[in-house]
Amino acid sequence: MITNRYLALDPKAYGLPDAEELRTLLAAYSPEFSPGAPDKERIPGRGKASYGERPPGGERVLGGEQATDGERIPYGERVPGGERATDGAYAPRVVPLSARTPAGAPENPYPVPAADLFAPSARVGNVPVEKIRADFPILEEKVSGHRLVWLDNAATTQKPRRVIERLEHYYRHENSNVHRGAHTLAERSTEAYEGAREKIARFIGAPDSDNIVFVRGTTEGINLVAQAYVKQFLRPGDEIILTVLEHHANIVPWQLLAEESGAVLRVAPVDDDGQIILSAYADLFNSRTRFVSASHVSNALGTVAPVEEMIALAHSHGTRICIDGAQSVSHMPVDMRAMDADFFVFSGHKIYGPTGIGVVYGKADVLEAARPYQGGGNMIADVTFAETVYREAPAKFEAGTGSIADAVGLGEAVDYVSSIGMQHIAAYEQELLAYGTKALSAVPGLTLIGTAARKASVLSFVSAGHSLEEVGKRLSAAGIAVRAGHHCAQPALRRFGLEGTVRPSLAFYNTREEIDLLADVLSKIAGGKARP
Ligand code: PLP
Q: FRET partner for 368 with CA separation of 20 to 30 A, picked from 64, 66, 76, 355?
């Protein structure tokens, strides 16, 4: 484990063997993590120091220096008359208002220097972030007269050009139903569709493409697991374990099942930081426990759940477990063999792929034990009016014509993120999350909700004296898209006495400069000054 002031990072989450390798990887993103750098919490004599200040008797707080002359200070160079810059920070640049607002656009109530906003400040692996941004055409879009700042990635991610073009190519050159026709286009579409299944299997470390079932998304995936697999084992009084962090998609399907079967839902609690209390989770198991379903990353708080421990505990009680990977699969490497979940579900649209397509990964034995989810064409080997013989998994669960083009598009999306490297995406986003945590913590009246040691992507908060709607609208007026509301996770927020939060959520095309803009607008809303 490596810790800094904001995060505790687990090498396993990056697919790396030890802390040293993780430190080397992270050093590329932030000097705070350079090899040999002491954990900040352990600097002797370190008092309270705010962003960029020197703590009494301690070391300079790294990674937050501000230059003073309006120019970008390259890494390691000295600001005239100042300190050595250690993070290539951008200086605040004074740009006249007239130069900030495009002609004819409504005036931005929260202007920032446009030149600084998308400056090349960072790399994701070997790729400069501005090159990554150029892969996403929608990031050029103007909203309220301002360049779009997309911080609603937990709701859905934007699509790279190659995914958009892959969909077009499919419809122009390959469109046909799969599996059925004995003609060239049927061959092409079947090859593309099954090729996508293989790419996804490789991407999540599944043993075989037969472990991959295409569905519409996480919601349909969890309904499939509940109805096709768990339902057959339930008797009145049996128990299913969830956690308080679940998205409604991982609550309501189980409630429907409990209503039908007389089963009971048990809920693992979280502590005040939003972390699963593992001992309380362990205490929920008993002889009536039949199944566990839990999210890998909370969409409302960003907590990364200790799924390895949760899975091992479930298995030690002979209980099967489903992991909702909707919010994890785009933010960290996942490996099914290492994770050992029985089911893992996710949505294509949250990992830069199309809407209308998602995945249920299942171990071979659970897929075999599961009954068909829906009946129809494609999933049968033989039909008579007396009886039907089903095909093997995954075909058994894919009745009717699926979202063929979208599956192909999802295959392209996982190729795209793989070409950058999920470990690099994770490291870049962790650094950005730490930066965002620091920036938002400095906004007057703002309280972050969800302060777990292991988090991904999400910066949920409430702002004293300002409604969620007001904050959401005023951010939108500045071109910044965030979600404001209950995020389909009401029990998770009610645990903190809240009905909703404002939720910026990060992806690897976001930048420090966008976070700065967000923090500046929030400071203005709070009535405070924008940061210098
Ligand atoms: N689970 C989690 C953790 C989510 O964040 C979401 C969507 O936000 C879902 C499930 C449902 O995903 P979908 O609407 O794509 O089915």
A: 355
